[in-house]
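Hi! If you just cloned this repository, the fastest way to understand the data is to look at a raw example. We've pasted two of them here, unedited. The first protein comes first, obviously.
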Amino acid sequence: MKGIVRDIIIVAVCVAVLWIGLTAYFGAQNPFYVVSSGSMYPELAMYDIIVISGHTLFEDVKIGDIIVFDRPKDHDKVIVHRVVAVVDDDPKTLRTKGDNNQRSIVGTDYPITKEEYIGTVVHVIPQVGFITKMLQPPINYIIIAVIVGIMIIRQVYKKDKKKLIDQAKAESSISDYNEFQSNEKTDQPTKDFDSIYSAQEKKPADKLDEENTKSEGVPEFFLDKEKGSEENKE
């Protein structure tokens, strides 16, 4: 479980660092938007992802630029349209229009001031926005559950694999020990037999030495008498 928590934290930290880096690079709190209508077709199609730059100042925006801004009348929707006119210079006020629309819409396309301005479109990634549609509930929760499930299975598999490796090592050690003991027992009778055989060979020599020792203590007179007695017997 600790391993899973660690992996989640690592992923979260990496995503956070990446996001902070992107926002700093593009100069916008959210540099990515998905086109949700066909008002800018064919320049921008539905589900295209647009990348905006907040480094382009509102004062530098000119006619023909495609900009992202909050809808003027209520600020509850983000719009991406093309600048078609500068209606006032003090303060600077713009009018926009969707390329696929017949005319500009009051409250949506104008008046656009610095307050509504978010950024200028600098890149377009075609059709990748389909992924965001797929990630809408409940599919996004299912994907998250699958990812977490895979991480859990991965951790369990690691633990089981480690147990099997440790068990195999233990069994191998026991097998080697039993084989060593068996070989030791097999060598023992051979050693005992060699000891007995050596003792039996040594015994006659010991008896002969003992008889010679006894003869050394008998006078020669008695030894000659014994020899003579043996000769008479013959």
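Ok, and the second one:
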Amino acid sequence: MKDISYTDKIVIIDFGSQTTQLIARRIRELGVYCEIISCYETKELRNISSLKGIILSGGPLSITKTSYLGIPKQILNFNKPILGICYGHQLLAKEFGGVVKNYKKSEFGRCDISSNKSSILTKNFFNKEKKTQVWMNHTDVVIKIPKGFQGVASSNDYKYTIIQNLSKKIFGVQFHPELKSRPFTPHEIFISFIDAAIKNKELNS
């Protein structure tokens, strides 16, 4: 584990995922301080200079219900890099005008995905054949991405496994990068997100 710097921080908004603490551990292992807050306490989050990025966790609930756990609009307007994981990925798509539906065919366990577009989030993530293996656990699916978003990767069954909007500094992944889907996975997604949130001059200009 790297020495942790307390001058910058990542905030994880917890939507009830069983692996939220593991997300925090992965971030801290990379030498970045992070805090976890409940999705019910997001109104307390302030747009301060030390806040460098936000991660939206997964969760057990469905985004397709009439009443679903959302996120205050002002957080989406902080102009900070945001990474949505599973439920967080679907939430970002829905909040910006995309379409999420519940499909009977779920993806669970190890899943092969393919790169469709280069991204600062997926640097060193795919192999030479532009493929990799991830860990999935979902039945809700993003079937239409919002205007201004791009599809970065897809699985055999679903088109939008990774999405991005660089101008809004927003990224979404349907899978769980905090879980090891391959032996000795170095968690490239978190490395790239931290680099984008803290070091990337183009993204933070």
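That's it. A detail worth noticing about the second one: Residues 76 and 178 are 23 Å apart (CA to CA).
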